[in-house]
Amino acid sequence: MTRHQFKNAVWQEENAMESADFRQLLSANPKLQQWIDQSENLTVNILHADTSRIGKEVLWGSLIYKQSRHARDAQDVFHFYVSPELLVTSTLDFEEDMDMPRHLMIQQMEDAESPVEVMMILLGGMVGSVLHKIDGFEERLHQLLWNIKEHNNRQTLESIEEVRHEILLWKHLIMGFREIAMAVEETFGEAVRRQREYERTSKRIDRCVMLVESYEDEIRNMVDMENVVANYRGNEIVKTLTVLTTLFTPVMAWGALWGMNFRVMPELDLRYGYVMSIAVILVSTFLLYLYFRQKGWTGDILRSIDNKGKPKQKQD
User: Fold this and answer.
1) 86 or 229: which leads in pLDDT
2) List of residues 6+ apart from 129 with CB closer than 8 A
3) Helix 249-258 to helix 273-295 angle, to the nearest 10 degrees?
4) How far apart are CA 202 and CA 80, in angstroms?
5) The pTM is what?
């Protein structure tokens, strides 16, 4: 166990929530003991408050503050118990992922007005870590945005589904931080809002919410763009196949007619019947093409074929 004594606050870290030392620090509240038992296999955030005694309010719970996007069980949990006199938490390894090194964070806690503000400093470091990881997510999102334009295929669609899943994980994590910030104000009163660290952490959480919501809108637009491109290409393919099939209708029709095995067929005795049949097929196909061209049913297809591979000229 590690105990930090500041000017106006006490913070105690415990290695194991199940230990007797940790239980002795808590009040004899059956909900607290139940919370310790529930936190062994945590799948969702836990948050409870006791405001029955004025000036003796207590807030406790468990927060999933880190979640791998590859494995469901790869997550880190922060357990906390905060009152006007004491802050008790599980041991945090924030040397690598927190917004600032441990010694700087503890130095910042020296000027904290209460254990609640120490708690907000810890939450601010966690939220800062989330912001750093969101920067990497933003880079992948930017690359995916251009892949939709340049390489629209099944792999791109799978990448969109991956980032959609990841943004849902970010929303789930940030929702936990936001809930705690609201519960702190609800439990300890509006005076907490005027504390510097509470205001700073709240704004940082709001920044996370703004970014995640903006990225969610971008992903939604990506899905819409992907659907539009896929539908357009599908329609073009069907249209092209339809036009080509129709243009070859004279070949199939005349070929089926002259391929019949009747004994009396005048065309069989014609000296130039073969050449005449080819001419009839070509003329029929050409007339059918002119009809499609007049209706405007082939213009887009022919232009896309002609312009394929040609760079667009810049307009002045």
Assistant:
1) 86
2) 65, 66, 94, 97, 98, 99
3) 150
4) 18
5) 0.68
